[in-house]
Amino acid sequence: MADTQLVSLAQVLGTRLLAHGWTLALAESCTGGWVAQVATSIPGSSRWFERGFITYSNAAKTDMLGVPPDTLQRFGAVSEETATAMARGALRHSQAQISAAITGVAGPDGGTGDKPVGTVWFSWALSAGQTHSAIHHFHGDREAVRRQSVETALQGLIELTLSTDL
């Protein structure tokens, strides 16, 4: 059953995207397509949802989004640089005007001293060239980290549509 708070955010996002005449592309890693699932649960979302990329592995990030292998090697999959490359890649490999990317450590394993479980990088991009990135350190189990990531991605997209003139 869909989370009503997430669905409400997706409805607001859809309204904002339609007002701009934009479509959305997503690049998801640790959320595994959850943002896309919430977006496409909205009737009529085909008018504003263009596509989603689930790029769980580094190879997928490179193959599907064009994330440079050097970026992954130098900064890691969970980094601002990778999230930004994912968001830009989602735009390059779609017809969308706005994108969001999510890459993080949902747990319960995989965390390090520098990037503990709950560390998630986000990037939001517009086809006009603007990008915004943010890091969050979420608490809770794997499900909680992933849900908070979905919420943050949707809120960031809404904020970007609100900060851009119609």
Topology, please?
Elements: H1 4-20, E1 24-28, H2 34-40, E2 49-54, H3 58-65, H4 69-75, H5 80-92, E3 98-104, E4 119-126, E5 131-137, H6 142-162
Parallel strand pairs: 1-2, 1-3
Antiparallel strand pairs: 3-4, 4-5
Helix pairs in contact: 1-6
Describe this entry's structure for a reader.
- The chain is α/β, with parallel strands linked by helices and 166 residues long.
- The protein is 44% helix and 20% strand.
- The chain has a single domain (4-13, 21-162), classed as Maf protein, CATH 3.90.950.
- The chain contains six helices and five strands.
- The protein has a five-stranded mixed beta sheet with strand order 2-1-3-4-5, sandwiched between helices.
- It is globular, with a radius of gyration of 15 Å.
- The N and C termini lie far apart (34 Å).
- The model has no long low-confidence stretch (mean pLDDT 96).
